[in-house]
Amino acid sequence: MKNIIQLTEKNIEIDSEIETLRDDALAFGSVLGHTPTFHVTTFGCQMNARDSEKLRGTLISAGFMESDDEDADVVIYNTCTVRENANLKVYGRLGVLNGYKKKNPNMKICLCGCMMQESDEAEKIRKSYPFVDLIFGTHNVNNFPVLMHRILSGEKHVKEILEENKASNEGLPVERKYSFKEGINIMYGCDNFCSYCIVPYVRGREISRDPKDILREIETLVNDGVIEIMLLGQNVNSYGKKFPEGSSVSGGEMNFVDLLREIEKIDGLKRIRFMTSHPKDLSDELIDEIAASNKICHHIHLPLQSGSTKVLKEMNRHYTKESYLALASKIRERIPDISLTTDIMVGFPGETEDDFLDTMDVVEKVRFDSAFTFIYSMRTGTPAAKRDDQIPEEVVKDRFSRLLKKVQDIGTEQTKKLECKVMPVLVEEKNEREENLLTGRLSNNAVVHLHGSEDLIGKIVPVHLDKAMNFYYFGEIV
Ligand code: SAH
Ligand code: SF4
Ligand code: F3S
Question: Which of 182, 201, 379, 477 has its CA 20 to 30 A from that of 451?
Answer without folding.
Answer: 182
